[in-house]
């Protein structure tokens, strides 16, 4: 209701109120607030990052999801930590996907390769997660990273072919096949 | 790809020892769960679980048999069909939750010997399928029984299950629709579940979503992705739907990804 209306304004002025909603233990409202923050995009980032330390666990998890959806590369370290160590698998999953969709293209040329490598190395590690859906998120993320960071296609192909052999969850195996198809040279 | 080691100090030997002793009920209860969770199938664990399935020592305040419930669940996960007669016997346990765990375990083991005993639990139809006074459950674990019959491809139970489409509990209705889709392939039953996804109650939408996933009914994929529920659950339902669909197509051994696979993966990507 009210949160949805606030989110619909897509105004940076709504950011403080939307982030406050993340503190309440109300999943329905938090989903609407996260959607709103993602719509606002980069303009919401500074506020989210500045307040992250003050959040309780629940709010931090929602804020991480918002950062994962926004794609601003300032969230790199935050998403790396969340993808590898968060207690909730839904947060690890969203963070893994978010890493693969970070817009490193907006960074100065000389920083891009460092960020690409950080994303690649982290997501390769996330592919060892015990939860299938987190591995799924990491594979989708890796695939997206290499749509533009094309020099990662060859190492990713080798990595995914090996991963396919030991992947116990059939749907994740299917996602690996799709990724291999999508990253193979025309 | 190892399972999460929840308690690295806990070993299989310890689990077996804990399950075999009778001094510490909670250690025994945990051991039964652990063996199922890590699918530790071997002669010692199975023998100890069969003993636990008839345990008389671990009783809950309401007269239930907590250890038997965990033992039945674990036996359903170990894939050893020699335990089927013991689980069939557990379908007659006085504890409702032991009966429910046994029905689910029999579904997991996929052995046709369970069909007749499961069908026997449905006799009396809707008239017998009432709430037990003072309890939050029905006289029998109807959802688990009906779902097991569907998974076991028990076409002889179609007539019996059809009655339960009119049960007062929506969850039982959904279980019946799920099983009837599996048994008849009639889209009508898949569509019933899709309609249920638009219901007002989150708990019921979740339930219908998991049932739809189990059917492998392809038009259900879009409906699941669009339903009002948490993404985590939608992803599980879509994985199940894909797996069930895939199982049906198994004869067509083609290496390329099917259009259905592509569509489901695309929907799943959008929910990450």
From TrEMBL, chain B:
It comes from the Bacteria. The keyword Transmembrane helix does not apply. Keywords: Antenna complex, Phycobilisome. SMART domains: EZ_HEAT. Gene3D superfamilies: Leucine-rich Repeat Variant. InterPro entries: ARM-like (IPR011989), ARM-type_fold (IPR016024), PBS_lyase_HEAT (IPR004155). Belongs to the CpcE/RpcE/PecE family. This is HEAT repeat domain-containing protein. It comes from Synechocystis salina LEGE 00031. The lineage of its organism: Bacteria, Bacillati, Cyanobacteriota, Cyanophyceae, Synechococcales.
């Amino acid at each position: 209701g009210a949160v949805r209306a606030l989110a619909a304004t897509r105004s940076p002025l709504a950011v403080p109120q939307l982030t406050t909603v993340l503190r309440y233990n109300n999943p329905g409202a938090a989903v609407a607030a996260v959607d709103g923050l993602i719509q606002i995009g980069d303009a919401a980032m500074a506020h989210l990052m500045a307040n992250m330390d003050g959040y309780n666990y629940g709010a931090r998890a929602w804020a991480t999801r918002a950062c994962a959806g926004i794609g601003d590369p300032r969230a790199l370290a935050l998403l790396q930590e969340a993808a590898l160590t968060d207690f909730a698998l839904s947060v690890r999953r969203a963070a893994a996907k978010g890493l693969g969709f970070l817009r490193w293209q907006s960074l100065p040329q000389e920083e891009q390769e460092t960020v690409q490598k950080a994303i690649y190395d982290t997501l390769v590690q996330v592919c060892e997660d015990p939860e299938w859906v987190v591995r799924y998120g990491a594979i989708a993320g890796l695939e997206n990273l290499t749509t533009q960071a094309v020099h990662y296609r060859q190492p990713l192909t080798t990595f995914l072919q090996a991963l396919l052999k030991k992947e116990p969850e059939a749907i994740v195996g299917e996602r690996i096949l799709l990724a291999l198809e999508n990253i193979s040279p025309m | 790809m190892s399972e999460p080691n929840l308690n690295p100090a806990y070993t299989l030997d310890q689990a077996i020892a804990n399950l075999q002793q009778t001094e510490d009920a909670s250690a025994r209860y945990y051991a039964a769960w652990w063996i199922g969770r890590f699918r530790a199938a071997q002669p010692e664990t199975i023998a100890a679980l069969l003993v636990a399935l008839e345990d008389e020592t671990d009783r809950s305040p309401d007269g239930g048999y907590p250890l038997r419930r965990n033992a039945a669940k674990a036996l359903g996960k170990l894939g050893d069909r020699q335990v089927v007669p013991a689980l069939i016997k557990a379908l007659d346990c006085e504890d409702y939750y032991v009966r429910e765990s046994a029905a689910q375990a029999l579904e997991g083991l996929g052995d046709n010997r369970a069909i007749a005993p499961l069908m026997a639990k449905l006799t009396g139809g809707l008239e017998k399928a009432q709430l037990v006074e003072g309890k939050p459950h029905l006289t029998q674990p109807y959802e688990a029984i009906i779902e097991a019959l569907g998974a076991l491809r028990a076409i002889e139970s179609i007539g019996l299950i059809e009655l339960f489409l009119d049960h007062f509990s929506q969850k039982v209705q959904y279980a019946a629709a799920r099983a009837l889709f599996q048994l008849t392939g009639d889209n009508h039953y898949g569509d019933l579940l899709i309609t249920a996804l638009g219901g007002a109650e989150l708990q019921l939408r979740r339930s219908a979503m998991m049932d739809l996933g189990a059917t492998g009914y392809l038009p259900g994929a879009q409906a699941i992705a669009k339903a009002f529920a948490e993404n985590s659950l939608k992803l599980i339902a879509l994985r199940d739907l894909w797996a069930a669909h895939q199982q049906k197509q198994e004869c067509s051994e083609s290496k390329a990804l099917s259009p259905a696979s592509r569509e489901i993966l695309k929907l799943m990507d959008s929910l990450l």
